[in-house]
Predict the 3D structure of the following.
Amino acid sequence: MLDGRSQVRRRAGPRLWLSGGWLTALALAAIFASFLSPHDPLAQDLFLGRMPPFWVDSAEPGYFLGTDSLGRDVLSRILYGSRVALTVALIAGTLTCLIGASLGLLAGYLRGWVDVVVSRLIDIWMAFPPVLFSILLIAVLGPGLISIIIAIVVIDWTRFARVVRAEAMAQGAMDYPASAQVAGRTRLSTMLVEILPNVLPTIVALLTLEMGIAVIVEAILSFVNLSISTDDPTWGGMISEGRVSIYQAWWVIVFPLITLFLTVLSFSQLGEGLKDRFDPVLR
Amino acid sequence: MADLYEVENLHLSLPDMTRKPLFGAAPRIEILKGLSFNIPEGEILGIVGGSGSGKSTLGRALVRLLEPTSGAVRFDGDDVTHLSEQALRPMRRRFQMIFQDPMSSMNPRHRVGRIISAPLRLHGVENAREAAREALDHVGLPRSFETRYPHELSGGQRQRVGIARAIALRPDFILADEIVSGLDVSSQAQVLALLERLVRELGLTLAFISHDLSVIRRLCTRIVVLHHGEIVENEPTAELFDNPRAGYTRELLDAIPLPDPDEPWF
């Protein structure tokens, strides 16, 4: 007699393929931006300002997604902007995950005073309004890629800590950590060998979600001009510039918005898909 | 025969977190109120009692998953009452435990082979993999099960894996905590028969916790009856069934369903 769940075959499905495909394409675009971009993303040409995308009659050949009010190529700027977005997503997401998940795991499994300290810290942290907190942090640290990453890590570690703590607590209440103790396993080893693998799917789902959030936070900070220097193209910066001329040149704001939307959506869908694939019971 | 376990005036209380005040310590509930008994080598001791009687707590104190508040627990002459986890670790291979719910007591991400061999590896047994396979033979499961996950097994098979894990270290003592209460009647009978055989073959001492006296009667040589954290009776099985002294024991005996349905029932 087998448990029926083992016979349910979960397929990767279009969700995993589509989100993974988009992110792979984006990663390639970021790496090879200098080859793929038809134009220099910073080159201005005031005679070619506000050219519409290719399917509109008055489009300028070679400027696929049109140009902004300074005559800069929108496609090239999106491609170069993905470098900043993905760098922030990967580094800030991973660091946030490492710090938050470690604290959450320790608090949830060890309980006692560790839990008291971490939980109070989370409570205090969550009382800060996140966007204002990040703007304040950037103001103190000064703009730049590293500042953005620090700001995201400092604000968002609680997301991991909270969820992983609750999950580790639930796992710790099962009998298998007790049976590991009967077998003579140390607490630290139990946490890493027994508990962590069972919390991992949650961590992976959160990690990709966090990467999406990091992309949004970076866009918000660029939007308010607190990201990296204003010369470098970022999606948030493009949205901010496009906002001014939204009635004359909608494409300047719409294309970076679509890219941003698809990227964040792909990150969260990838997480959900991976979570299912990781679970031996559901697999 | 020598006593493997000597339990003397064992008290155990746990903090009641539901009534914990905002500041200060939670009030403690006394769960075990001064228990004294011995488990001689080779005996199969039944521990019975209703829910909340403290039988699982007593079991967990014996294998030192819980630390007693006061009193003494001696295992093979060594006082293990307040030993630190570190000091206990080398001794742990001598007393093992089978849990009530094998689904909860086995890591769902580990395969059966790893689940059984993990205690062996932790105690530095050479050739843990082969020893785990032998343990599977012992409990009557095919060796091919070592590549399965716990959720791929039936309830009875899973509990056999639980038994295999406990005997793999060749302990002197095994605590079985309500190990058949989650199984259907025919699996129960098979698991009990298996346990009986293993105790004989491996010369184990066993403490068998259950709320079901008919299961205990079949397996155990002596029975301890717990009620509200106190021992109300400690007798050889035959004695207890023929001549129950405590009122609570009589109630438990009366609660055993007997196969004599009356005519109108049909």
